[in-house]
Amino acid sequence: MRVVVPYGAADPKTRLSPVLDAGERRALAAAMCRDVCEAVQASGGDPEVLATATGRVPVDAPVRRDERSLTAAVNAVLAATEDDVAVVMADLALATPDALGRLFDADGEVVLAPGLGGGTNALVCRHPAFRVDYHGASVRDHRAAAREVGARLRELDSFRLATDVDDPSDLAEVLLHGDGEAREWVADRFDLAVDGGRVGVARTGN
Amino acid sequence: MRVVVPYGAADPKTRLSPVLDAGERRALAAAMCRDVCEAVQASGGDPEVLATATGRVPVDAPVRRDERSLTAAVNAVLAATEDDVAVVMADLALATPDALGRLFDADGEVVLAPGLGGGTNALVCRHPAFRVDYHGASVRDHRAAAREVGARLRELDSFRLATDVDDPSDLAEVLLHGDGEAREWVADRFDLAVDGGRVGVARTGN
Questions:
Q1: According to the 3-state scheme, what is the secondary structure of chain A?
Q2: Which residues of B touch A (CB under 8 A)?
Q3: Do A167 and B198 touch (CB under 8 A)?
Q4: What pLDDT shows up at residue B206?
Q5: Is the pLDDT higher at B12 or at A145?
Q6: Would you call A199 and B162 a contact, using CB atoms and an 8 Å cutoff?
Q7: Is the pLDDT at B163 greater than 60, yes or no?
Q8: Among B15, B99, B160, whose Cβ lies nearest the Cβ of A197?
Q9: ipTM (interface predicted TM)
Q10: What pLDDT, on the 0 to 100 scale, is given for residue A206?
Q11: What is the CA radius of gyration of chain A?
């Protein structure tokens, strides 16, 4: 199976701007991408980074560049590949080899791992006609797209793959459940902030 | 296995107040509790509602009343039960028989299903000395508590069990992934609101 990890390096993670400056956001995005690639490798896969923006990709894995939109770049891979393809987002800081193994092993011609808020954080495609569209509530659109081409659809129930790191509150999930470089990076700068309801983060004194 | 579903009926889901009035919050909480009990039944379990507040419990399942705190009420059950005990929160509107089956079947003397923001949305206890504490980042505390009593710990990786319905944004998850009474209730009142980033909800015209 070909495992593609899309990575937009130029100005990543803008929704983290309230708590991280541009350099920090680039550093965290790179750390997460390395963690994801390592988890793919540990699950037995060979990750290939799909860089959808200019800029250095500081990851020890083959890099393919396609500076069109995420959707266009992924669809170009799907169209050009006869083998099964997995697409795993680079900001899944909680991804483990186990969770990715469940994804890769799930049967179904299209396997979707939903993200929080309607995204599609990871997928496996084993159907020649299936194409992605990452705008809006993409998991809903991908279900419809799979039905449209007659692909057997399966959804993977994984909290670790559902949790992409987009909003400041996601940094709490990294502290609570991560165990890679990104977790260490966040822990150097933030503590959990517990004050009723869901836990958040607060900058540490450093 | 004894399956306990804690349910605080008096003024539930206060964090949904920005979008739902008190009567609506009670109706949604009751619908979710019925959905959870049905999913437990469909997975082969016999749910028992643990009512931690006064008020009617409009659910077709045995009800045990204990109006102390959630923590005290659950610990009383754990102390009084020699059999294995599962504790499944009543607001897991995405829970399916499959996800609950994975929880009940997971080995480990303590099995934790983390919730978003550090909660513990469901657990299985097969160790006589383990006790809960639902304050703060409870999943972290429950890991420590399991270690302290020497219980073999396992965590269940489930998006469906991680998603409790507490914040308005969770209503979007119900629309996207639910299929029970609660989903229908939310769909009668809200639409998905897609505007970049994670999807939210907006009141419909009704």
A1: CEEEEEECCCCCCHHHCCCCCHHHHHHHHHHHHHHHHHHHHHCCCCEEEEECCCCCCCCCCCEEECCCCHHHHHHHHHHHCCCCEEEECCCCCCCCHHHHHHHHHCCCCEEEEECHHHCEEEEEECCCCCCCCCCCCHHHHHHHHHHHCCCCEEECCCHHHHCCCCCHHHHHHHHHHCCCHHHHHHHCCEEEECCCCCCEEEECCC
A2: 15, 96, 98-99, 102, 114, 116-119, 136-137, 139-140, 157-162, 166-167, 169, 172-173, 176-177, 192, 194, 197-200
A3: yes
A4: 54
A5: A145
A6: no
A7: yes
A8: B15
A9: 0.95
A10: 54
A11: 17
Q: pLDDT at residue A17 above 80?
A: yes
Model pTM above 0.80: yes
Q: Do A157 and B198 touch (CB under 8 A)?
A: no
Cα B112 to Cα A173, B33, B156, distances in angstroms: 15, 20, 6
Measured between CA atoms, how close is B98 to chain A, in angstroms? 9
Optimal mutation site among A116, A121, A166, interface B, most CBs of chain B within 10 A = A116
Is A58 a residue whose pLDDT tops 90?
no
Contacts of A199 in chain B (CB under 8 A): 117-118, 136-137
Can you tell me the distance from the alpha carbon of B135 to that of B127, in angstroms, rounded to the nearest whole number?
A: 21
- For A72-82, how does the pLDDT look when each residue is reduced to its tens digit (9 = 90+)? 999 999 999 99
Which pLDDT belongs to residue B55?
Answer: 79
CA distance B17 to chain A (A): 14
